Amino acid sequence: IVLTGGDDRLWKTWGFPDGNILLTGEGHTDWLSGCCFRPSGTQLVTSSGDTTVRIWDLSRRGCILTLRGHCRAVRGCSWHSCGDFVASASMDGTSKIWDVNSERCRYTLRGHEESVNSIEFLPFSSTALTSSADKTLSLWDVRTVSRL
């Protein structure tokens, strides 16, 4: 199964090798910039130009949580390997670490001078890597919200 998102505001799961669309999700009001399966495979996260991050439950075939807090388009998203946290990167120059269980932003990472274009957790760690339009990469300890 492959997951995609695009300018049509939809995410789609595709089966291979046939390339059939298995599921489609709609709800964002602008382009999708990122999508990622939860490590358990039961949910996914999407990020969008509409400034939101959404959690989708595949068995319910719908959005179960909309995370709001960025003031500009969200450029990327990722799940932590434990499955309890989602990270987002935004054109507002910040990244956020979201606690999926409490449905709140746990930390806001500030330090880039321009748009944050991507964020990824290092597997099985509390470290996140961000890339920015300011031509820098940063490693963050998300427990202390500090650059490494």
From TrEMBL:
PROSITE patterns, alphabetized: WD_REPEATS_1, WD_REPEATS_2, WD_REPEATS_REGION
One Pfam short name: WD40
Start-end of each WD repeat: 25-66, 67-108, 109-148
SMART domains linked: WD40 (SM00320)
Gene3D superfamilies given in the database record: YVTN repeat-like/Quinoprotein amine dehydrogenase
A Gene Ontology biological process term: axoneme assembly
Keywords: Repeat, WD repeat
PANTHER family: SPERM-ASSOCIATED ANTIGEN 16 PROTEIN, WD40 REPEAT PF20
Protein name in the entry: SPG16 protein
Species for this entry: Bombycilla garrulus (Bohemian waxwing)
Gene name of the encoded protein: Spag16
